[in-house]
Amino acid sequence: MSESPLPIPGAENPEKLTGLKKGNIKKVAAGIPAVVSALEMTVSEAGFQRGMKALFNLNQKGGFDCPSCAWPDPDDERSGIAEYCENGARAVAEEATAKKLTADFFSQHSVRELGNLSDYEIGGKGRIAQPMHLPAGGTHYQPITWDAAFEIIGKELNLLDSPDQAVFYTSGRTSNEAAFLYQLFVREYGTNNLPDCSNMCHESSGTALGESLGIGKGSVTLNDFYQAEAIMILGQNPGTNHPRMLTALQKARAHGATIISINPLPETGLMGFSNPQTVAGVLGYKPALTDIFLQVKINGDMALLKAIMRILLEEEEKNPGTVFDRHFIEQHTTGAAGYLQDLKRYNAQQLAVQAGVPYVQVQEAARVLAGKRRIIACWAMGLTQHKNAVATIKEIVNLLLLKGSIGKPGAGTCPVRGHSNVQGDRTMGIFERPTEKLLDSIERNFRFAPPRKHGYDVVECIKAMHAGNAKVFFAMGGNFLSATPDTRFTAEALRKCRLTVHVSTKLNRSHLVHGEEALILPCLGRSDKDMRNGENRFVSCENSMGVVQLSRGVLEPVSDQLLSEPEIVCRLAKTTLGTRSMVHWDRYIEDYDLIRSDIERTIPGFTDYNERVRQPGGFYLPNCNRAGSFDTPTGKAHFHIAEPQVPDLKNDELMMMTIRSHDQFNTTIYGLNDRYRGIYNERRVILMNAKDMQRRNLKNGDLVDLHNRYDGVDRVARQFVVVEYPIPEQCTATYFPETNVLVPLTSVAEKSNTPTSKMVILTVTRHEASA
């Protein structure tokens, strides 16, 4: 007799506390504590010899690319000591762990038992060592051969009424080679259902930049930071999410750049940084990074940007040609006159109130920018996960265009990607809305007609699975359930599938909330050797700034039953498509150079791919904005007009944004501490302003339940500990994935369809313990 489904509520993310311990908010990031933390985890997980071998090859030329964030490596010499950050080392430690899960582990632990663990506990179990199968009605995963696993998938895919009843998800870890083969297989199979993690993070950036500037990528290189006069950082916490960026900011500041940080939270990494790779850092020298900190309310960014530009416009009108780059505007843009005319109807002081920033601070930022021409704007999910995310990012572009700060050294756009090859996946064609050029190229080169109808993005695929319109879910990496919004709804959607399949390195919650039948396919990680015919093969990745470089693992895999992602795709394609395929999949398994040769003839920018990727440090892909041009219908950059949005909150309502802790990367939980924010041993916390706490008669340590009632649905996250924190009034912050249950699937950004995880309207009630 099979076990019943996991208990509700809380099954998808157990509602248990671990015991909050409160410390002081740190004033400086990194330093020796970061080094100690990284080394402790590396040695404990992988052992000294294995762990040090991995770290010494991490992000080195000829080594392997960090499986964590997509911050670029230096073009010139790289640190021989540590060309990585604390969280990069943790990501490698997780992957290089000596712990492994064999059939014995799964026979001893049922799916229900594992599902009652926290995400931290699940992730700490170790590497999956062999393919595992959960049959329909089963309670435990069972071992299965690779051939049998592919037969199950191929059979289910071929039984579907339409290829559009299958969904093929991709995480940002997948290499260029695997991503290219994956999208090629999916399109030959007959669908464009290729949702990916971009849909949930920087889709808004790609949409805004594509419409405004003609390319959905940032325009700057790492060297531009060292030539910049001003750097704006909006909605981003690099100290936790992109720690190596702090080194670049420190160097930029030493070269004279003024750094303006805009965020609802005063994040430690932006306030101070002790570089552990320098003598000063080792000695505890704590230089400030941010010159001007503007603490906006949640989603106050557009109002703040307009306030700054309104002040700049007044100065430009007083002294024509001294503030704006009129030549650049006239030669390279369209829509400036209409935009400036619309800007005149705003009052800068009123906009500052709307943004929640004192007007004197807005004036200070405007004075700095008035005399600068080389300006870089960086941003992350603090901007992209709002209803007006696309319009807000276009407002950043408006500012840069007025200043002529695109297409010149030390200036441009810098959306900071959160996963190591998420940008490369999109370049390779992982996109539910492919361009006609890409589809034409595939048809020309591979002699089959790819589907032209757009597929499902993440939000659409969840709705389709829930409605019974998608019956097979295949994930190339990632932890889909914990990454997506509206956790309970998404879990119901996955459980309605006939088959769910996950290509993974480690156990995660998505393996435990499954379809009628489920498979886990264990793959090689970035740090693992990929041996074939005596050769350790390499793959390639693209970082946030468009550099493509090789990645070659150095560690012996924990099991001889792991396959590389390219081989998994090829064998899946062979089994599913059989003799009707026009692609020679066997050739790709044997020789990755053949994959890259076909990428070269299919995807623009990869001329001499095999030769250039072998050059130390790799090569830059073409970027029209970097070259000073704009691939728009007019050939010019476009100004866009939008209205700042002000949420209409009731007296008892608050705005909530989801954030990461320092012991976390995306959905991977390394530990239970958030030491920069002074929070230890607990993740179920809600950061609140002291005045908001007083209005609700709450104090530090009180237990509360969080409610979101968007669209008539009552979403609840229970048992959260109140923590007083310096956050603006009416604003709160919580960690994801614990509060993804509160993020409505139906609340998405305009145009990009990205879930609004940084703007959740909630009420807070005291938690009443169940009888």
Notes on the protein architecture:
It contains 31 helices and 32 strands. It is globular, with a radius of gyration of 25 Å. It folds into three domains: 99-190 and 422-614, Rossmann fold (3-Layer(aba) Sandwich), CATH 3.40.50.740; 203-415, Dimethylsulfoxide Reductase, domain 2, CATH 3.40.228.10; 654-766, Barwin-like endoglucanases (Beta Barrel). A six-stranded mixed beta sheet has the order 6-5-17-16-15-7, sandwiched between helices. A six-stranded mixed beta barrel has the order 24-31-28-30-29-32. A five-stranded parallel beta sheet has the order 11-9-8-13-14. By secondary structure, it is α/β, with parallel strands linked by helices. It comes from Dyadobacter sp. 676. Residues 128-502 form the Molybdopterin oxidoreductase domain.
Q: Which features characterize this protein?
A:
771 residues; alpha/beta; Rossmann fold; Dimethylsulfoxide Reductase, domain 2; Barwin-like endoglucanases; 3 domains; six-stranded mixed beta barrel; 16% strand; globular; disordered N terminus; MopB_CT_YdeP; MoPterin_dinucl-bd_dom; formate dehydrogenase (NAD+) activity; FdhF/YdeP family oxidoreductase
